[in-house]
Specification:
By secondary structure, this protein is mainly alpha-helical. The protein has a domain at about 10-55. Helices cover about 70% and strands about 10% of the residues. The chain contains two helices and two strands. The chain has helices at about 1-5, 15-55, and strands at about 65, 70. The longest helix is centred in the middle third of the chain and has 45 residues, at about 15-55. The protein is rod-shaped. The N and C termini lie far apart (about 85 Å).
C-alpha cells in the first residue's frame, strides 16, 4: 500500500481482475479435483467389494502338487 502511495507500484485494473480470476479459478479447480478423487476412491472400494463377493461365490477346489505325474497329498 505504501509503495502505491509513493508511486513505486501502480495498480492496473486488468492485472487485478486477472489475478483475482486466477485465484478463484484455482480454488474451483482444486475443489472439483478433490471431489472427483473422493468419488473415484469410493467407486474403487465398491468395485473391490463386489469383486471379493463374486470370487467368494466361486466353488474353488484345492489342487495338489504333482511330481512325475503322481499326486502328492
Amino acid at each position: 500500500m505504501m509503495a502505491a502511495i509513493l508511486g513505486l507500484l501502480t495498480f492496473d485494473p486488468l492485472a487485478i481482475i486477472v489475478a483475482t480470476t486466477a485465484i478463484i479459478g484455482g480454488i474451483v479447480v482444486f475443489g472439483s479435483t478433490t471431489t472427483s478423487a473422493k468419488q473415484i476412491s469410493a467407486a474403487m472400494k465398491d468395485a473391490e467389494l463386489l469383486k471379493s463377493e463374486l470370487i467368494g461365490r466361486i466353488p474353488l477346489r484345492v489342487v495338489g502338487e504333482r511330481v512325475n505325474g503322481q499326486d502328492q497329498s
